[in-house]
Amino acid sequence: MEYVYHAPTLTVDSVIFQLIDNKLQVLLINRTNEPFRGTWALPGGYNAAGDTTLQALERVMTTKVGTSVKAFPVVEQLYAFDTGARDPRGHAVSITYMCLINGLVPASSDATQQPTFFALDALPKLAFDHAAIIKFAHERLDTRVASTTAVYALLPKRFTLTHLQQAYEAIHGRQLDKCNFRKKFLSFDLLVATDEYAQEGAHRPAMLYRFKEQKLQPLLRDF
Amino acid sequence: MEYVYHAPTLTVDSVIFQLIDNKLQVLLINRTNEPFRGTWALPGGYNAAGDTTLQALERVMTTKVGTSVKAFPVVEQLYAFDTGARDPRGHAVSITYMCLINGLVPASSDATQQPTFFALDALPKLAFDHAAIIKFAHERLDTRVASTTAVYALLPKRFTLTHLQQAYEAIHGRQLDKCNFRKKFLSFDLLVATDEYAQEGAHRPAMLYRFKEQKLQPLLRDF
DNA sequence: ACAAAAGTGTTAAGAATACACCCATGT
DNA sequence: ACATGGGTGTATTCTTAACACTTTTGT
């Protein structure tokens, strides 16, 4: 049998989440090339032969976001999307990653790409099937913060219990009872109170907490 | 910039689960080609340009398992593995799928591949990183049967509550209390009792149940 | 004194767990 | 009669959920 194997185009796209103004936001860049030129899209790029998907992701991060993958405390592969024909010339498969971070200031090597964070409830029109990818990523994030300590990646080292609760509320999209939230989360015994307080207005200052371990751990019970 | 894009090799591998003798078993085939010739491996194959991963999976299923993907009530994409260098000539990315079925008798178009079900606790030496893929698939299956009605795909249309419990026990790998299991599962209101009984030995016959809906549904509470 | 957010207590409903028991069948 | 697995009841403990209350700050 005479048959020359030809591989489909392989790309990598990253969904970078960050909490800004107590809202869950995602990083988008403005496409400078066709197709979808001028439309907002997830930072992504080609995965060339010889590169692992993580290496391709690193290339995307350094060139289009201005940061190494290593700067993200939580990076998780999501799904291989192959519905959206990325390239009009043919079928493409995109491996997607979810990246969580706090305090990232993006800087593309190409300034016209203007990397910008958008709130999930105020997304612009998106290129390719990127709206579906973001939806998938949001659902995955929801299950991850429910079953692991993944929120730590979205918060600064020190934070108040109200910050923590607001993070959960922004991700889950619903209000939680303050007292019940605190009792439950503290019962996991993952936080330690620091001796510092946050003074943020005309009211009682809040105690600052930090995670005992800055790493992904399973939660005893789901949130 | 003069640059010709070259895509990595893309493959598809399937983890086919079935319950046999109250044990969770996975389908393996014996490799007829190098590398790993003569070693057991997951059914898999190349994903050629122009084919979606599901089309590539269909090709694998019809040629190496003797069944269409459509015969599997539950098919779920798992993860893109790119650690194992499938081909010694270069880097390869494998998209993996988990497929659940009941009563499958496999038949490869190439009889020397002898597709065979192996119990998860008695796997042979495996090619590539397939041991890691099976472990990943097992964990995913565990969360799926805990949060959805995915078990239905592993059971015949009619089954006893003991069969159902044994399925959960085989997947979770631990014993469950009969009374508590029944109360909880029946409280989901997903099963209906048929008017038939299963007579399986020198003891009281067991009532046969069926799922109201033969489809994947979320469970009210996790198992 | 008051507004605003921090932080706590209490109770009732619901779920999980452990364990003991009765029932219907073939031999 | 008895062994075997089918099928059920109940009490205890742990979680969840709702809601009301007190505390500490700046103005």
Structure description:
Two copies of one chain form a homodimer. By secondary structure, chain A is α+β, with helices and mostly antiparallel strands. In chain A, 24% of the residues lie in helices and 27% in strands. Chain A has four helices and nine strands; from the N terminus they run ββββαβββαααββ. Chain A has helices at residues 53-65, 130-147, 161-172, 178-187, and strands at 9-20, 23-30, 40-41, 44-46, 74-81, 92-100, 116-119, 191-198, 206-211. In chain A, the strands form two sheets. In chain A, strands 1, 2, 3, 4, 5, 6 and 7 form a seven-stranded mixed β-sheet that branches. Chain A has a two-stranded antiparallel sheet with strand order 8-9. In chain A, a hairpin with a 7-residue loop joins strand 8 (191-198) and strand 9 (206-211). The longest helix of chain A is centred in the middle third of the chain and has 18 residues, at 130-147. Chain A is elongated, with a radius of gyration of 20 Å. The termini of chain A are far apart. The model of chain A has no long low-confidence stretch (mean pLDDT 94). Chain A binds chain B through residues 5-10, 46-54, 77, 79-80, 82-83, 90-91, 93, 95, 222, and chain B through 5-10, 46-54, 77, 79-80, 82-83, 90-91, 93, 95, 222. The structure holds a DNA duplex (27 and 27 nucleotides).
